[in-house]
Design a protein that fits this description.
heterodimer, A: five-stranded parallel β-sheet, 22% strand, B: two-stranded antiparallel sheet
């Protein structure tokens, strides 16, 4: 199935069909702008509304009301004039707002007057000993299989980490009849006190009641161990056991499946490759783009909405998508903006949706030992580089992530740093006594997802392209 | 490791893993079908030959790399199954011509 974009140029191109992208594309199309939505997955929804149009989970309460919100977003978008292409992997976006996208093994190009990046989040790396073993996955991976294929764990299953998603996943697995043997909560005890000053905003946010009832639901059925300070997976070619320390006591339990989660971080690859300025966020411990109140980035014409703009959750992502799209409409067709919800209303909705976030960020700030590994623990999964390898490279002069590539190939495998970048930055910052901002990040470039040379060679070329590289 | 919920009423799709038929469901990704099948779907890495299974299931980790219908290094978590699809568990790096 190869369906290239119908036009060469659009008013607005939205990249990513999660909550922010769905809302942005629908808003832009509703105002009458020519709109293209490109998404890498099989169907719309992103991660939070994964498989919203196709899930085999028909008992609606099992996935929860928050999930089905996505169905309305998809319906609104499909009723609009927006062009939607699934299984379309954008591999390049530049300052001229030219987009290269791989669809069915062939690349196509499109130009935009405005680009809204809605590439969302990915799970923070959780580099513990044994995290590359078969049988160790992210919590998000299990949730993806649950939503899109109604698959649930049925072997000895341990869930470890912290954060709202962990409890939601546990509740969903139990509702679908899946198995969880133990939950290992890695939330640092000190975080509860640190988060208190923001407690009032949280108590009055929608997260509170939902979170509490979900934790109660899970705790009634599963043994939960709190205050876990060490965690390791072990096995010979396959996960066999999980060992942990809680309250100073070490325990090892047999396991077939270990699901890890310590929050999500912005998926920065495409935005950084487009040249958008990012800064280290000391609270969320990740890189976040520098944006104005409407999501406009440092590159003219490119806005970022949703969790890619800094983690805010699905409800905030929808509003951010509408704000970014409205800003695009105001810039390109000001008269048509009157058809849309006023910006003041949208900003009030955004403030409401983001209420309680600081509390969650502080409470679920992952502990240093789960972010900055030591010894033989693998940091770069693709190139199989350990923490010790990286520290050895620092000892002989590697100054930052980019120079480290020449020493150890970290971040040069197919995942392009998505699973090691944050760890490398924090590890090198610690080793060199610098801040993550000073250490910096990998210099990301197109193609931001691997494509074959054959696909690149098959791209249509004009005479100027050929002359640019021809000898003589 | 995983089993299917009984409420899943999607039509079955037959795919082949290293020549052996397995039953998937319409709408499964290749990676989900492999994990649900119970067969040994561990690939081995290009660098050390270490065994791996999918880690993220959302297109970012590349631990689901697999050969699909003769084309290597495909991200199994992003490709839906199709009737008669031929899957090969990839051992080591992608072979030239595949």
């Amino acid at each position: 199935m190869t369906v290239a974009p119908k036009r060469e140029a659009y008013d607005v191109v939205v990249i990513g069909a999660g909550p922010a992208g769905l809302a942005a594309a629908a808003t832009s199309a509703e105002a009458g702008l020519s709109t293209l939505l490109l998404d890498e997955n099989i169907g719309p929804g992103g991660q939070v509304f994964r498989a919203i149009a196709s899930t085999p989970v028909t008992e609606r309460n099992q996935l929860g009301a928050d999930y089905w919100v996505g169905a309305d977003l998809v319906q609104t978008l499909r009723a609009s004039n927006a062009e939607i292409i699934q299984r379309a992997t954008v591999w390049s976006l530049d300052r001229n707002l030219e987009i290269a996208v791989s669809i069915g093994g062939a690349s196509a190009f499109a130009r935009a007057q405005r680009v809204i990046l809605a590439t969302g989040a990915l799970e923070r790396p959780f580099p513990i000993p044994g995290w590359t073993l078969p049988g160790v996955m992210t919590a998000g991976a299990a949730q993806t299989m649950l939503k899109s294929s109604a698959l649930v764990p049925d072997g000895r299953t341990v869930i470890a980490g912290q954060g709202p998603l962990l409890w939601l996943l546990a509740a969903q697995i139990l509702r679908l009849g899946g198995r969880i043997d133990r939950i290992l909560d890695t939330t640092e005890r000190g975080n509860y006190f640190a988060a208190l000053p923001n407690g009032f905003a949280f108590l009055t946010s929608p997260y509170f009641a939902k979170g509490l009832s979900m934790m109660r639901e899970v705790r009634a059925k599963v043994q939960v161990v709190c205050g876990v300070t060490e965690l390791a997976a072990a096995g010979d070619g396959q996960l066999a056991s999980v060992s942990y320390v809680a309250g100073g006591k070490r325990e090892t339990i047999p396991a077939d499946l270990l699901l890890l989660h310590q929050g999500v971080v912005p998926n920065v690859n495409l935005a950084m490759a487009a040249g958008i300025e990012h800064r280290w966020d000391d609270l969320q411990l990740c890189w976040s783009p520098v944006l104005d109140a409407s999501g406009n980035s440092s590159v003219a014409g490119i806005a970022i909405a949703g969790d890619g703009a800094g983690i805010g959750g699905a409800t905030a992502a929808v509003v951010r998508g509408r704000i970014a799209a409205r800003a695009a409409v105001e810039a390109l067709a000001p008269a048509d903006a009157a058809k849309l919800a006023p910006m003041t209303v949208l900003r009030a909705e955004q403030a409401k949706a983001e209420r309680g976030r600081t509390f969650l960020d502080t409470l679920f700030r992952p502990a240093p030992q789960f972010r900055i590994p030591t010894g033989d623990t693998i940091v770069c999964r693709c190139e199989e580089v350990t923490a010790k390898d990286i520290l050895d490279a620092v000892a002989i002069g590697a100054t930052g992530p980019n120079q480290l590539k020449a020493y150890r190939r970290t971040g040069m495998g197919p995942c392009q740093g998505r699973l090691c970048g944050l760890t490398v930055t924090e590890l090198m910052a610690q080793a060199r006594g610098k801040t993550p901002q000073e250490i910096g990040y990998y210099r990301l470039r197109a193609p931001v997802k691997p494509i074959t040379l054959a696909e690149l060679a098959a791209v249509p070329k004009n005479e100027a392209d050929v002359k640019a590289v021809a000898r003589g | 490791m995983f089993r299917r919920s009984e409420q899943d009423k999607r039509p079955q799709v037959e795919i082949f893993v290293d020549g052996v038929a397995i039953t998937a469901r319409q709408g499964d990704t290749v990676s989900a079908a492999l994990l649900a099948s119970g067969c040994d779907a561990r690939r081995s890495t290009a660098v050390s030959g270490a065994p791996r299974l999918p880690y993220c299931m959302m297109g970012v980790c590349f631990d689901c790399l697999v050969t699909i219908d003769g084309v290597g290094n495909r991200q199994g978590c992003l490709v839906p199954v199709a009737e008669g699809m031929q899957i090969e568990i990839q051992k080591g790096k992608r072979e030239i011509g595949k």
